[in-house]
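Input record, target 12 of the design panel.
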């Protein structure tokens, strides 16, 4: 494999997903209802330690009320967010 192909593979399969997840973490930090000081600390951690900070943020992140409500509704529904598939009925004689 040539050096150009190897570097393209690194960009496509490793760096691009990491950059997307990192940017999603930053967007999530600033969109959540957190105190300004907490937002600032998390933003600094994620900016200075992109991989470790992002993983730590998502592991320590508490779910919002709407996320909890959706999870409860999915548990009651039994579908876990998946569309229901109806079983075919046997033909009537």
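The sequence produced for target 12 reads:
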């Amino acid at each position: 494999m040539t050096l150009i192909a190897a570097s393209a593979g690194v960009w496509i399969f490793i760096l691009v997903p990491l950059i997307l997840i990192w940017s999603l973490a930053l967007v999530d930090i600033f969109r959540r209802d957190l105190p300004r000081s907490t937002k600032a600390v998390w933003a600094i951690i994620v900016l200075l330690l992109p991989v470790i900070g992002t993983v730590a943020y998502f592991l320590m992140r508490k779910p919002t009320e709407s996320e909890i409500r959706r999870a409860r509704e999915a548990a009651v529904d039994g579908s876990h967010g998946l569309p229901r598939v109806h079983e075919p009925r046997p033909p009537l004689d």
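The CA atoms of residues 61 and 75 lie 21 Å apart.
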